[in-house]
Amino acid sequence: xxxxxxxxxxxxxxxxxxxxxxxxxxxxxxxxxxxxxxxxxxxxxxxxxxxxxxxxxxxxxxxxxxxxxxxxxxxxxxxxxxxxxxxxxxxxxxxxxxxxxxxxxxxxxxxxxxxxxxxxxxxxxxxxxxxxxxxxxxxxxxxxxxxxxxxxxxxxxxxxxxxxxxxxxxxxxxxxxxxxxxxxxxxxxxxxxxxxxxxxxxxxxxxxxxxxxxxxxxxxxxxxxxxxxxxxxxxxxxxxxxxxxxxxxxxxxxxxxxxxxxxxxxxxxxxxxxxxxxxxxxxxxxxxxxxxxxxxxxxxxxxxxxxxxxxxxxxxxxxxxxxxxxxxxxxxxxxxxxxxxxxxxxxxxxxxxxxxxxxxxxxxxxxxxxxxxxxxxxxxxxxxxxxxxxxxxxxxxxxxxxxxxxxxxxxxxxxxxxxxxxxxxxxxxxxxxxxxxxxxxxxxxxxxxxxxxxxxxxxxxxxxxxxxxxxxxxxxxxxxxxxxxxxxxxxxxxxxxxxxxxxxxxxxxxxxxxxxxxxxxxxxxxxxxxxxxxxxxxxxxxxxxxxxxxxxxxxxxxxxxxxxxxxxxxxxxxxxxxxxxxxxxxxxxxxxxxxxxxxxxxxxxxxxxxxxxxxxxxxxxxxxxxxxxxxxxxxxxxxxxxxxxxxxxxxxxxxxxxxxxxxxxxxxxxxxxxxxxxxxxxxxxxxxxxxxxxxxxxxxxxxxxxxxxxxxxxxxxxxxxxxxxxxxxxxxxxxxx
Length: 737
Fold this sequence. Notes:
By secondary structure, the chain is an alpha/beta fold. It is built from 23 helices and 28 strands. Helix content is 28%, strand content 20%.
């Protein structure tokens, strides 16, 4: 035995032991991507370097032996600098997506690819649970979300994006129509949280804080919970029966809900703070924005949110036969389609830009036109004209598009001397909404009149009081944005309640260069949209327009997914090390050495662009299995791993043992899904159903002398259970024993 010191810890180890082995045996982690006990030491990745006193150069711990009295530092500044450079070089030549673009573009960062894949496999329960890990009201959000995820979907480069929002609603409806899933809550922490506002942000925060074991009470000024989902979205888009069911599920977790109480009247922020350990302000933006146009004060001129709320509450105003809606967003679409359903004969949308610049969802724009709405583009109100205090007409300035503004859209400019006048019975101003500032006068506000909240921690000017949603910083946005804020705020509040520091560092992920992606081999498949009520039927009532997906339609649409994100994301050793350090691979950005190619046999899929040339697959195939199915081909920058003579895997001696897949530190080698019965079973494997933590799972099992050597799970199990290969193998061995 010899004595040495690693990171200040005195340890003993056998003579001849490497520094890496000694460190790991004593719970000290040294990163490495090319080392495994099954194969000879290679030292290719350069990540396992350490610094030893008295030795001028850094040592590769996988090969350097321990010596008596050695003093080793595995995390010195010099070591970290060396590892960062090594990682930057590796990642600069790694062409792969850690996470799908749809997920990155979702404000709540829902695993869109994950639940779409689960729906494709018929795993609806697992899909719902995955969605609910981020979204507490998926049936509602699936109906109303303008789906920024779909705007980033790469399927649009083939034909059309995946109908992600409708698939979310489908999975949620399946759950609501059965015994709804209610997550299990952690043991009670004894901490109390008050939330002001029962809209999507407040309900989301309440849901996840309760699951974490905190006692949560939501206070809301309206008769029922739901916020703008209830009082700002028409029935034909979001049936309130659906919203009621989802709120009931939230209540079942233990959330207390108090309605008909108003901030500043029945309680104050300070009074709630005195009774709770934390307070979250999620009061929303309930005041319609003004256009500052002469005549706004006339009877018959309504704010968009005020108008929609009155209709939903059963207090619809008499809008007459001729109605003009000012605005081009989704609220304007809701207002004009609601006006049609109230019996208005002439309904106009006045918008100062063109159809192409409208921020509203394209489906809403098209369906409104089908229902009889008339668009008047490149027009802008300059006055509302009245008689005896009642609006009678609107004067429009004719516009034209000039140079792009800060948003990138061409700025509308007036055409001198050109106007138009329209006779109207009422006007609806759907140009935005804002916070009622008197409600939150206890907190500091910005120059926009919104609550100042820290963008990372959501803290306000009062300690222990947090703020989220439409009432903060930039103001009103879409519901999924508020839900995303609520998700992050829950982490901040939980850390605050537990007296812990919150890590807000954004972890590194790899993204593909969009310009390098070739879609020419993808078969074109038409997007599947849910059936809708005919225009002449739906414009006369408030019945839900969309009929939703059937099961066959949902599977068909889900199967169009290109699966951009890496299936090895939760297990990738390369990503784990990359996120350990603040790296900048763009410093070494250049031409990618390997083309993004795929090769597969019945069980193994190979993607050379994700390969980092660690050599583990080549060495394990040669040294452990004595098969030599793959090797390092080429020299220098163009080196890659491939079968001899660039043959397909099926034409090599590969016996699908899976050792290379198990050792691969990236997503370059992955297991194919074989349980869809589209891939023939290899005679070395038997298909068995096992119980893993209470879940029934089908797996393929390979044995040698009675010992389980390898397990192949299906995609659903892989996504729904956050297990490493080693953990999964151990659980399967326990189950089968």
